[in-house]
C-alpha cells in the first residue's frame, strides 16, 4: 500500500500516543515517521496541515487561537518547503553533472592518450597527475620515419574543464602536423597561430617541444614560455637549467621561436616539467628548484620511470597529498 | 584565499593596488574589477603588485588579457612592485619582453 494513504493513520496514532503519555519513545515515533515522509517527499506545509486536521479531530476543544497559530505556521513553512524542493532538484542536477564529468574525463583520456615510444638507446619516464578531475597539463610523444622522437609538454593557463578542452584542441593541431621533419621552433610557430586564432583571449598555453635524434644524439628544442626543465650531465654529475626563451602561445600570432640544440652524451638526462612541479607549496614556502634537483640526485641510480614516480611521491607527501596544480614530470635518459 | 583591489584615478592615470593572493579563486574578481577599465581609449594603467604574496599562472592570464585589451585601445600598461618570484614568472613566459615590468613602484608617479 502506498505510504501516503496510510500516512494520516500513522500520524494520528503517533500524535495521540504522545499527547497521552509524553514519553521518549512516543516522541521517537515522530522522528521515525519524518524519515518516511521525507523519503516520500511530503512537504513541511503538508505535515502542518495534516497535524492541524488530526488535532481538530482528536482534541476538538483546542483553543481557536492555537488553531489559527497553526495556519500562521503553515504559511511560514511554505518558504521552507520551496527551499527544500530547490535543494532536491539541485542535488539531482549535481549528480547528473558529476556523471557527465566522469564521462568527459574518460573521453579526455582517450583523446589525449599518447604512446610512449619504446626503443633501444633511450629510456623514458613519465608521470602526469591532475589536481582535479581533468588534466590541464599535456604531454605527447611522437616518433617519425627517421626514428626521431618528438616530445611535447604543455600547460594551459587556467585549470579544470576549460583548460582540458583547450588541450584537446592542441592535441588535434599537433596530430595535423606533417609527420616528419618538424623542427621544434616550427611546431611552436604553427601551434601559436592555432591558439591565437581559436582560443579565448584570456587563455594561454605554455609549451616545450623537443626532438631527439637517435642517430647523432642531438636534442633540438624550443620553448613557448614554459617552465625550464633541467639537463643532467653524466660526465660531471652536474645539473643545469634547460633554458630556452620564447613567448607563451596565443599572445601574438607573429611570434618567432628560437631553436636550441644540445649534444646528449651517454648517461645524460633531459628533465621536463610543468609548473605544478615548481609551484608545489609546502608549509615553508615554495619548493626550490635546487630542492627538486636534490630529489633527482637522490634517485639518480634508478631507472627513469622510478625516478619520476619517487619524486612525485615525495612532493605529494610534502603537500599533504593535496595537489594544487596539475603535475607532470618527464625524464629522457640516454642509456650508457 | 583573499584579495583586495584598490583603484584610484590620479592625474588621468588609473592606479590599481592589489593585495593578497592571485590564484584560480581570486583571479575572476581581479578580472571583473579591472577589465572594464581597460576598455577605454588611451587608458594609462599602472598596477602595483608590491603586496601580492602569491600569484599562479591564472593571474598571469589576467594580466595578459588586460595587456592585449589595453594595447588594442591604444593605451599604456605597466606593472610595478614585482617580487623576484613574480619577475621570474614574467621572464620565463616571455611576457617581460612585451609588458613593461621594469620600473619600480616610485617610477609609477614620475
Automatic annotation (TrEMBL), chain A:
PANTHER family: PHOSPHOSERINE PHOSPHATASE RSBU (PTHR43156:SF15), STAGE II SPORULATION PROTEIN E-RELATED (PTHR43156). The keyword Transit peptide does not apply. GO terms for molecular function: phosphatase activity. Keywords: Hydrolase. Pfam families: RsbU_N, SpoIIE. The keyword Hydrolase applies. This is Phosphoserine phosphatase. Residues 123-334 form the PPM-type phosphatase domain.
UniProtKB/TrEMBL annotation, chain B:
GO terms for molecular function: anti-sigma factor antagonist activity. InterPro entries: Anti-sigma_ant (IPR003658), STAS_dom (IPR002645), STAS_dom_sf (IPR036513). It comes from the Bacteria. SUPFAM superfamilies: SpoIIaa-like (SSF52091). Residues 3-110 form the STAS domain. It holds the Pfam family STAS. Transmembrane segments: none annotated. Keywords: Phosphoprotein. CDD domains: STAS_anti-anti-sigma_factors. Belongs to the anti-sigma-factor antagonist family. NCBIfam families: ant_ant_sig (TIGR00377). Positive regulator of sigma-B activity. Non-phosphorylated RsbV binds to RsbW, preventing its association with sigma-B. When phosphorylated, releases RsbW, which is then free to complex with and inactivate sigma-B. This is Anti-sigma factor antagonist. It comes from Peribacillus saganii. The lineage of its organism: Bacteria, Bacillati, Bacillota, Bacilli, Bacillales.
